Amino acid sequence: MKTLMKPFDLSQLSKAHEVRFAGSEGMEEQLPWPQFTVADLNFFYGRQQALKNINLIVPNKRVTAFIGPSGCGKTTLLRTFNRMNETVPGTRVEGSIRLGEKDLFSIPATTLRRVVGMVFQKPTPFPKSIFENVAYGLHLEHRLRRSEIADKVERSLRRAALWDEVKDKLNQSANGISGGQQQRLCIARALAVDPEVLLLDEPCSALDPISTAKIEDLLFELKKFCTIIIVTHNMLQAARVADYVGFFLSGELIELNRSKQIFQNPEKQETQDYITGRFG
Amino acid sequence: MANAALSTPGVPMQSRGLEKKQTWLERLRKGDEVVHLITLAGAWSIIVITGLLVQHLWVYSAIARHTFGWRFLFTSTWDPVNGLFGAWPFVYGTIVTSILALVIAIPIGLGTAIFLAELAPRKVSDALTFLVELLAAVPSVIYGLVGIFLLIPILTTAMPYFQKVFGWLPIFSGTFYGVSYFSAAVILAIMVVPFIVSISREVLLAVPVSQREAMMALGATKWDVTWRAVVPYARQGIMGSIFLALARALGETMAVTMVIGNVAQVSTSLLAPGYTIAAVIANEFTEATGDLYLHALIELGLVLFAVTMIINALARLLMLTMKGHEVTG
C-alpha cells in the first residue's frame, strides 16, 4: 500500500489555502507521505454544520496538532478519522478522506479503528487489572497465545513509558493508579494493536504538569512508528510537540503549516490573533 | 446571609460576626441542624424497627423454640394435631423455588435490560420499560390466578414431552399434577423479572459514554462494547437488582401458595408439590389452635428472616470474591 504512495510537496499541505513555505528550509526536510488526505470535507450535526469544506493532508510519521477555540471543529475532524462521529445519531459527513491510498469510508469501522487508535480527553481505564486493560484490544481480534499477549502488553507498556512504574502491579486494578499513569495506560492500550495512527483528543487537559511533560516526551518516541494527531487547547504544548499545526476557526481550516511557521510567522491575521491571545 | 456579608467589601471584620461562635440554637434556626435531626431519626427508625421485629419474633416463638430446639429446623414432620412441628419442608421449598426462579429470571431479565438499554431505539425502549414497570405493580394474587388458569394448563400439556427428554433426571421425575415447585418458580420468575429489567436498564444507561467510546476506539463491535465494557462496568448495579429480586422471591406469599400445592413434604423432583415458609404462615395463622402451634408458625417467621439474611450475605460474599477475581484475573 505504502509503496504506491508518493511523497507530497509540502505546499500541498493545505490545498484550500494554497499555503506556501517561505524560504527554502522546506526543501531540506525529507518529504513525508500523506497519512490522511482530506478533500472537501463537510460535517453536520443535524442542521448545524461543524466542518466547512476542509482540505488538508496529514503527514505520515509526524506529530500534527489541531488548535483553535472551543467549538471550532478540531475534535470533530479528529473523530472523523476513526469514524467515531458515526456513533452519534443525526450526524452526516460529505467529502472524501483517504487513509494512505484507501477510501476511509470503505473500510469497516471496526477494522479502521484498529489501524487508527484513539486516546480521549479523560483517562478511561476499564474496571479491570492493568494487564487486562492493555490486553483488551488483543482479545478482540484473534486468539493469541498467552505468551504472545504478555509480550505485546509489555512492549506496549514500555512504549508508553509506563512499564517501570507498573511492572510489579500488573494484576492490580487500573483504577488504583494516578491520572497521568491511567492516561499512559490508555495510550499503551491503543498501541497494543499496532495502530498506524494515534489520535489524541486533548490527552493532557486533565493532567498535572509533570504527567503532561511525560506524555509530551512520549510523543517524540511514538512518532517513530505512528502518525500522531493531537487536539490541544494548550498552544505551548502544540509548539513543543507538533511538527505541523493546523488552526481551525468556526469549522474552517484557517491555516496548516509547519509548527515553527505557525507560531513565528503565520500567514493569516486570524492565526496571529489567536496565538497572541487576542481572542479565543 | 453570611455569604452576602462576606462579599460586602469595606465592612470591618468585627461587624461580620466571623469571630463569634454559633450556638446550637442558632444552627437549629439556620436549618442544618433540623435536616440533620430529621435524617438521623429516619436512619435510626430502620434500626429500631428491625430490632423490634426480631425481638417480637424471638419472644413469641419461645414455646416452640424450647420444645423443639434446633430439631425444629431439620425435621420434616408438620403435624398440628399431634403437636409435632418441623420446618425443613418449608425451608427447602422456599430456597428451591427462589433459586430456581432466579435461574430462570436472570437470563431473561438481563437480556431484556441489555436490549432496552443498548439495542432498542429510545422510544421503543421507553414504552417497553413503562410496561415492564407496570408488571412490577401487578398484585401478586393476580399472578397467582395467571398461574392457576394459564401457566399450569400450559405446563401440564407440555410436561409429557419435556419428561420424555429430561425425565431420567431425578429433578424432573415423577408424575406432574400441575401444582409444584416448578410452577411456583416460574410464576416467581415472571414476578421478579421486572425488578431485574428495570434496575439493570437504569444502571446500563448510566455507564459513561467514555467507557463505550474507549471500547469502540479499540475496534470493538457493538456486542463487544456491550458485553465487555458496559455490562462489567454496571456489574454492581446488576447484582443489586438480582438481590432485590431474590428478596422478593423469598418472601412472596400469595402467588406461590396458589400454585405450589401446599403439601409439607420434601421432594427431589421439582415437579412435585411442596410448601414455602411464607405460604404456610399465611395459610395456617388464622386457624392455629394452641400456643405451641402459634409459636411454631412465628418461629417459621424467624427462620424466614434468618434464611433471607443468610442468602443475602452469601450472595454478597459471592460478589466480593467475583470482584477480587476480576481484578487479579
Order of helices and strands of chain B: HHHHHEEHHHHHHHHHH
| Order of the strands making up the biggest sheet of chain A | 6-7-8-3-9-10
User: Roughly what percent helix of chain B?
Assistant: over 70%
Give the total of beta strands of chain A. 10
Number of strands of chain B: 2
For the largest beta-sheet of chain A, the strand count, sense and barrel status come to: 6 strands, mixed
| Mean pLDDT over the residues of chain B | 88
Share of helix of chain A, binned? 25-40%
Summarize the model shown:
The complex is a heterodimer of chains A (280) and B (329). Chain A has helices spanning 25-28, 74-81, 109-115, 130-140, 146-159, 163-166, 179-191, 209-222, 235-241, 259-264, 269-275, and strands at 34-45, 48-59, 63-67, 91-99, 102-103, 116-119, 197-201, 227-231, 244-249, 252-258.
Task: Describe what this molecule looks like in 3D.
The complex is a heterodimer of chains A (280) and B (329). Residues 1-5 and 16-29 of chain A have low confidence and may be disordered. In chain A, strands 6-7-8-3-9-10 form a six-stranded mixed sheet, sandwiched between helices. In chain A, helix 4 packs across helix 5 (146-159), helix 4 (130-140) runs parallel beside helix 7 and helix 7 runs parallel beside helix 8 (209-222). Helices cover 34% and strands 24% of the residues of chain A. Chain A is α/β, with parallel strands linked by helices and 280 residues long. Chain B is mainly alpha-helical. Chain B has two domains: 2-63; 70-328, MetI-like fold (Orthogonal Bundle), CATH 1.10.3720.10. In chain B, 73% of the residues lie in helices and 1% in strands. Chain B has helices at 2-7, 24-30, 32-59, 62-68, 71-74, 88-119, 122-136, 140-166, 181-205, 209-216, 222-233, 235-251, 254-259, 277-284, 291-328; strands at 78-79, 84-85. A two-stranded antiparallel ribbon of chain B has the order 1-2. In chain B, strand 1 (78-79) and strand 2 (84-85) form a beta hairpin. The termini of chain B are far apart. Mean pLDDT of chain B is 88; it is low at 325-329. The chains are: A alpha/beta (280), B mainly alpha (329). Chain A binds chain B through residues 82, 84, 87, 110-114, 117-118, 120, 122, 124, 126-129, 132, 136-137, 139-141, 171-173, 186, 189-190, 193, and chain B through 210-211, 213-221, 224, 228-229, 232-233, 326-329.
